[in-house]
Fold these 3 entries.
Entry 1:
Amino acid sequence: MLEIRESAEQDLTGLLVVEETAFGDTEGPVIVELVKGLLQDPTAIPLLSLVALSDQRIVGHILFSKAEVTGFAEEQSSILAPLAVEPDFQNRGIGSSLVTEGLKLLAEAGVKMVFVLGHPEYYPRFGFKPAGQYGLDAPYPIPEAVKEAWMVQELSPGYIGRVKGPVKCAETLDHPEHWRE
């Protein structure tokens, strides 16, 4: 039985293990440091951290941190980064459940848009669309070859198109190495 809930302080070690194993030996340590940083970064608040548990064991994690479109700071937005599922539990719908629950909770909290730099084959199933076509630019330039990886999901109908500009993220995420797909 899969349980999805907000993470708690005692979940930190388990969710970091998930991040490291999901992203592998090269990228895993970088993602672990990113998650630890975001969880302690006051510029990332409000943030939403969810874990997926199978038999009381953390097998998935998703993190949404504060974002804003420059000039529209009063309108709440978030960035999804990262999403991780333990390799032995992948392809079972756990990642989809985490994304779906996260988007639902963010919409209930009044978040207008959610951004992600991720796989263009995966995220559109949740309603994500290329953000660049709406004039919403990533914090760092996305190479033309992978520009479709920078996406946005509207949580407040009619909001996309009313705001345009570069997106600002939390200080921990605001480094060029985190903006390569």
Entry 2:
Amino acid sequence: MAYIETVDYEKSDGKLREVYDHLIDTRGKLADLHQVQSLDPEAIIRHMDLYVHLMYGKSPLKREQREMIGVIVSICNSCMYCVKHHSAALNHFWKDNNRLGTFLRDFTKAELSEADLLLCLLSEQLTIRPAFEGKEEMIRRIKDKGLDDRAILDATTIIAYFNFVNRLVLGLGVEGDDKEQSGYTYD
């Protein structure tokens, strides 16, 4: 139960109903995260535009790398709502429950490529200690593994985005439920 008033689908009308219908048509479901923003439909639109751009737009990062980043940030922030959603999306690509379980417990043991491991380390450090020493060296190492400046920009933006969303979820009491996990489109 959110800490603020929300408008569910049945009570929505006008612009909010349009936004909700669009989300259902394009994402497969209406998430509790969207409903917690229901008092400002324009914010939902702008939020989803950013989300779609970062997670589905053109990028040197693969979709699974983007989901991996989201999961690491969400674990660091103890945002179980986002961990559940984005680990399900990550496993859509991996199709390996054992690997996912290992990743969720300790990503350093999840048989990641060196580049992916560095992206996870960057995600963890920028979330826990944004001003951490060694950032420049880590970015150089990421480049050495074949990721370019655009990939690093995209990774950093996704890290920042998930920190934003985690704070919305945790700050406003978004809980979600198990039924909310199924029915989303990930591709």
Entry 3:
Amino acid sequence: MDDTPEFDDLPSKSQRKRDMDALQAIGAELTELNEQQLATIDLPESLRDAVREARAMKHNEARRRLVQYIGKLMRQIDDPATIRSKLDGFLSVSAEQTAQLHHIERWRERLLAEPQSVSEFIAAYPEADSQQLRTLIRNTTEERARAKPPKHFRALFQMIRGLVEARNRPAHTETPAD
């Protein structure tokens, strides 16, 4: 009869180290959040304070030690998976917003560089006011030629952004009044 305890159920030292590194990485990601995002995550006060302190630090070595401490505090959290899922949610929203901004910027540059792209844009976004669009393009071109502040350049971006965002918003299912 074997009297040795079962060690097969315990994680290996390497696995424990990987788990600790993962928690430290989550803690490091917490330091990159803005105050509004941080407020939406349920954290112990000591961890929240350490994250705020790390965000304020500029010295790399001191910040690195504090991030290690945050990793240590993360080990005391019952369910780090909920924090991970919140962080992933912030990242996916951010990636979608970035992609949308790049899409808008590409349209603006095409509209300014290629005259034939105006008809393509109007075909893609038929709700666009074609006269206003052409006026903004003309004014932006003049603005650039005269090295003036980019007032119309920004207005063109806002117009394109409004159209793109309106398309991406979920449609309301309302019936028209008779």
